[in-house]
Amino acid sequence: MQVQVQAVAPAEVEADTLALPLTAEGLAETGKAIDGKLDGLLQQLLDEGELRSEPGWATVVNVRGQLPSKRIAVAGVGKTEDIDADALRTAAAAVAQEAGPYSESVAWALDPSLPLPADEQARALVEGTLLGAYDPARWKREDHEPKLATLILCGDTDVTEGVERAAAISEWVNRARDLVNSPPNEATPERLAARAAEIASEAEHVEADALGPAQIKEQGMGALAAVAQGSDVEPRLVVLRYEPPQPAKPDFVLGLVGKAITFDTGGISLKPSLHMQDMKGDMAGGAAVIEATGAIADLGLPIRVISVVAACENMPGGHAYRPGDILTAANGKTIEVTNTDAEGRLVLADALWYAREHGATHILDLATLTGAMELALGDLYAGVFANDDDWREQVVDAGEASGDHAWEFPLHPRYRRYVDSAFADLKNSSDLRQASPALAAAFLEEFAGEGPWAHADIAGPAFLERPRGDYLSQRGGTGYGVRLIVELASRLAA
């Protein structure tokens, strides 16, 4: 989508649809000015109840030649005192959904009466429009090419740089969604490796590599190899390295690790069949890491990055790993398998080791790891665990600032005893129906090595079984994690 900033008054902008915010207290300043050109039409519709101020509501009105724009879209943003970036993202997404089918261009007026500065308004409106206009129906036979092609922000040209940045990041988010929404017969581990290679070929200062089955075994990655062995589809350990052209912080390498189970049946500990088709989304953490690395390179951030994505299928079969197997991970620790559907932490174990072994000083892993995290936080927040309080705080703050919401969780040392094994160094799951996200994090900590490490359990917000209702996230992949990672990298590079 093309994004423009025009130094033009909203009443003069030429667009198929001009969008205006509506607060609970009434039309905002720009809306009142536009309504003066319309002889009070918008206020009349508001008085009659046809316009609503709740976030997520948008009403489109044809103005029949009274303005250069053909239509007005009035979008609710809630109480003025409560307006934040999320409210504007939601409003912009609602307009994209409502007006997008018959509008090639949408213009938004930056409103000085709202409590957010113009640059924050602009960023939120760009993100909301580009994410809200996303269409997951790429595989339908009918033409699903989106009609909405241009977003115009009018009023303040000082926001241009921020607008371009927000648009670029949003495009990378949507690329991650494309990967997650791809069917598992297309989005194989080999395809993820190819996508990483595409990014490396198109972006300067990025190198890509992919370890196949033989190399995975040579590295001693017995955990990843075991999960992969039940499938005829070969695994890959996908590696991306970004070395910025400008000087970066010395002795600092950001390690990004992603779980990419491209299809998860649960293995021999088979999942229920209902909704199993959504298990193509179990690679959302890996997709976010791959595309966020591309975004960091695209923005030219002065920070060194190594990204490691463990990609394989988890399938039952004659060659599948079994409950009771004992595996040896790359760091030498032995793991008793008590549940083959707790495979994500196994592949992450070897990927975490690889990232640390190859220079990562600070690590963040992203994984759709536990259903219990979704039960706890729903589809809006990820839970973050860490071995370092300051590092956890930085990750959570980056999530909140970016719109990829995150919440901190404890990682008390006593959790470790619940993954003790009578036969091996530790086991991959507990039969206690307690604290499963924390126990998974305690398991991962054993493989994170020396240095700050954080784990984001993104099971809730990464893949939606149904639309969230805010128009920002349709059914399927959300691209969660891309904005968080880019915000974190930007802050670390500053």
Describe the structure.
This protein folds into two domains: 2-156, Leucine Aminopeptidase, subunit E, domain 1 (3-Layer(aba) Sandwich); 169-493, Zn peptidases (Aminopeptidase, 3-Layer(aba) Sandwich). It contains 14 helices and 20 strands. Helix content is 34%, strand content 21%. The chain is elongated. The strands form four sheets. The chain has an eight-stranded mixed β-sheet with strand order 8-9-11-10-14-18-15-16, sandwiched between helices. It has 494 residues and is of the alpha/beta class. The protein starts with a strand and ends with a helix. The relative contact order is 0.12.
Number of domains: 2
Major sheet characteristics: 8 strands, mixed
Number of helices: 14
Helix percent band: 25-40%
Classified by CATH, the class of the largest domain is Alpha Beta
Low-confidence sequence ranges: none
Strand tally:
20
What is the CATH architecture descriptor of the largest domain? 3-Layer(aba) Sandwich
Question: Would you tell me which CATH topology of the largest domain applies?
Answer: Aminopeptidase
Which shape, going by the Cα principal axes? elongated
Q: Pairing-aware structural class of the strands and helices?
A: alpha/beta
What share of residues are in beta strands? Answer: 15-25%
Indicate the mean pLDDT. Answer: 96
